[in-house]
Amino acid sequence: MKSFRTLILILAVVLAATAAWGQTMPAAGSSLTIGLVMVGPYNDQGWSQANYDAVQYVTNKVAGTRMVYIDKANSADRPGTTVSQLAESLMTQGAKLIIFSSDDMADEAVKFAMAHKDIFVIMSSGSQVWKDGKTYQDLPNMINVMGRMEFGKMIAGVAAAMTTQTGQIGYLGPLINDETRRLASSVYLGARYAWTNYLKKDPAKLKFKVTWIGFWFNIPGVTSDPSQVADDFFNSGYDVVVSGIDTTEAVTEAVKYAGQGKKVWAVAYDYYKASEMAPNVNLGVPYFNWGPAYVNVVKSAMGGSWKSHFEWNAPDWKNINGADTTAVGFNKGGALSATASSTVDKFIKELAGGLNLWKGPLSLQDGTSYLASGKAATDQQVWYLPQLLQGMEGLSVQK
Amino acid sequence: MREGSLSRAALRAAAIVLALLLATLVMLAAHAPPLAAYANIVLGAVGSWDVAANVLVAWVPLLLATAGLLITFTAGLWNIGIEGQITLGAVFTTWMLRGLQASSVPPALILACAVVAGMVGGALWAMLAGALKTFGGVNEIFGGLGLNFVASALNLWLIFGPWKRPGVASMSGTVPFPPALWMVTVTPQSRLSISALVIALLGIGLVYGMLRGTHFGLRLKAVGRNEKAAYLLGVPTWQHMMFSFALCGIFAGLAGAIQVTSVYHRLIPSISSGYGYLGLMVAMLANFNAALAAPVALFFAALNVGSIQLPIVLRQDSSLAGVLQGTLVLFVLLAQGVRQKLTGKGAT
After folding, report:
1. For residue A295, what are the domain limits?
2. A49-62 residue pLDDT tens
3. For A109, A195, A325, B228, which has the most beta carbons within 10 A of its beta carbon?
4. Contact B313 A90 (CB under 8 A)
């Protein structure tokens, strides 16, 4: 009997090992062509360019790698195509690892990963292979990478609150989903913290409004025009507009209004060099630094240690602008005053020291409790934020 | 007769050479090596099974749109509204799928109902353009153009409004339908559906047969050539025009239904993908000949898919394929015009 049980045990171990072996991917070897699929233009000075630069960083850091890419991978710019079809076109050029770099590609990335089980797939900003996520799927060839931009956005909120003279901050939002709700809310949390803790002002006097355009960037005739939305903010007393979209309209419109003598400012998004734009209005940019995470994942594909997982990477708190270490950073812009700048530094130090603004008591926009007093949000609660937070104006879900 | 067809072929060949020359000049102006560009387009269209299958995926809706347009062209109608008809086909298909997906109806039957709904949607939208022309005196070009905008707005409203993803507002489209409601494809993850391919080939075959070998086809031709004379000879002209709109709409709606059920598996804002406008060009380049429509459409589909290599390899915009397609049509039409002028005969 005992030997029978031992036999069963051995069999189970062997079976489990075989199953686990079946889940791994063979090493790509000493050379690897990386195919990058971008939703917008590669030089958008925003989300897509941050990814483009990151893969270039990989090709500089990891010997034997090269990049091929396709940009404007959306059905408005490339009618008749599907994202997985575009990825297949990159395979024609030898790509063995495909990076789908936009939330918009989530469904297609899954289809592609299932159709091409021998191709390594990175789905940035997605959560399909997050075991604790709501939409987990077993895809051995997929890895999800995301940066904890909540920190960058909170810093942006502090910069905005320390600058506004009217107490009105506008958020130029893309489309509405879990990610965009939590990022808009992070800006609000940062702004409210600065408003009440540093400026000692009444939180009721801080106006924070979100307007969504319908997509990550302007598609004429389909989305609202982001320039128009930014103009509406500036024309109705909102003197700081924080960008949540892939492109730079918040900054360029601020430049226009500043040229007319208005005192207005903007916070850019996504791309580290966006802080160099328009120093007369630019407060700075919270940006993604995908490079270091991509290097690790690419190395694992080449070396044979690839394992499907979800990573949500925090900033390097020793140096949030460390090019080789951080996942998320904040570059200050030319229009950030000396006082605001030192407050931003102070806030970053507090965050590094453990300050958590995603902590109760916090309520959702409709007044229902989100976090009880003293309770910190779990990763799931932050990732899947169901509504904007109380105190924010704007749609939580499309009416 | 033989000489005539020879000179026609020579003029057509000259037109193609001229179009290639012009496209080459555009490439040189854009600092793109033309030979490499053409080589990459070919590689991108037939370089692997995946990309070749993608060409066929694009061929299906393009061929269906062209097949429909051949009917309206025969009746002397410029059905510019075909884009909207494809869109409405997709909308009706989505509507049917949404309505039945939670029911106990077998998936194959749901799919069949959805495809039929798409055909009805396309036909209704086309007949609206037909009615505007027949009863409202609105030229079908203007009516169709207007209806295209309305269809596009309706589609967007549905995607952002009543049919939005729960908690999401994005132009990414509606929630994908479950795989049970996808048209069966060659492999489970491929987008190429044999049934869609068969439908498209049957469609163009039907149109070919109808226009060449039926009484209806003959009367349609009569209406197209000379509406007044046809009327005097007893052909009910407006009924024939209306019917040709409806038939074209059925084909367009079918194209939309296939876009939803086998390509995107959901409704997206640009669901018609420009196949209607491209179909107009295919029909013109094929000289409104149903037998030529299939290869010409295949060539255009290959150009569309193959040209994706241009931004990847040469950092050139893939709209170069559009330049080539447009100049091809222009030069072929020009060649026909020249021939007519020289011989004093109308082109057939």
Report:
1. 24-148+291-313
2. 999 999 999 999 99
3. A109
4. no
